[in-house]
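FAQ
Q: What does a multi-component entry look like?
A: The components come first, one per line:
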Amino acid sequence: MEKYNFEDIKDRVVVITGSGRGIGKSTAECFASYGAKVVISDMDADVCEQTTAELKSAGCDVIGVVANITKEEDVAKLMKAPIDKWGKIDCLVNNAGITKDTLFIRMKLEQWRLVQEVIVTGTYLCCKEAVNYMRKLRTGNIINISSFVRNGNVGQVNYSSAKAALIGLTRTLAKELGSMGIRANCVAPGFIETRMTDTVPEKMVEDLKKMISLKRMGLPKDVANAILFLSSDMSSYITGETLEVNGGL
Ligand code: NAP
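Then the predicted structure of the entire assembly, as tokens:
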């Protein structure tokens, strides 16, 4: 009988942007726990170093690369590091993201641009650089982190439009790169307990929980598990899709 499990993840090389904390860190731990080789990356050098050291001391095969994904030279350095060490990139998780929330009528062009720059342009740059390596080996996997609020959310016109853009980007990559053995999918988290949500007022959190079928906020590992699934052979015939991880919001 055929085996059904995540064993293929062992020794896969995975680059995770914004993995010094939050969902990215949990995803790094998840992959590493299955024996993957992981590139931890963060803009903040201290956070990057700390998370890398934590995983290393747990016996994981990881390297840390400080990179701002909006800078082409940083992205080139980020993708070259696993090539130099392990000779390939099997999976890219475009997780880094920011919010600059305010109502549309108050939003400044700078707030609009910054969010688009990190989420859309940063993801584009990372895909571009990683695919250059992936296509040579005719295999690869890209997971982009979108969001439930791509459907629209008060105070987040910059963020929701950027997260919606990732769906179009992902579906186009799936169409263009499928014949090269490269898959591309999105994960769209709902309301997850991280730094990004820790300033949401208590009353709003309680109201939101009422709208979630499972009546709780998600944990970073809830998202990490979905990312793992989409990057493993367990999802080998899935591409161009968006997997919702929102507890039934
Ligand atoms: P988080 O704890 O704030 O983590 C975001 C990470 O992205 C941090 O490591 C941050 O680096 C990094 N980052 C930001 N800008 C960057 C840049 N220009 N270059 C490189 N790294 C950069 O938030 P999170 O909740 O884990 O978010 C992870 C992803 O999930 C984001 O794309 C977010 O939009 C998405 N998401 C989150 C939720 C939620 O409810 N939390 C829901 C839906 C989607 P620093 O440490 O240097 O700041």
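Q: Is there any commentary attached?
A: Sometimes. For this entry: The mean pLDDT is 97.
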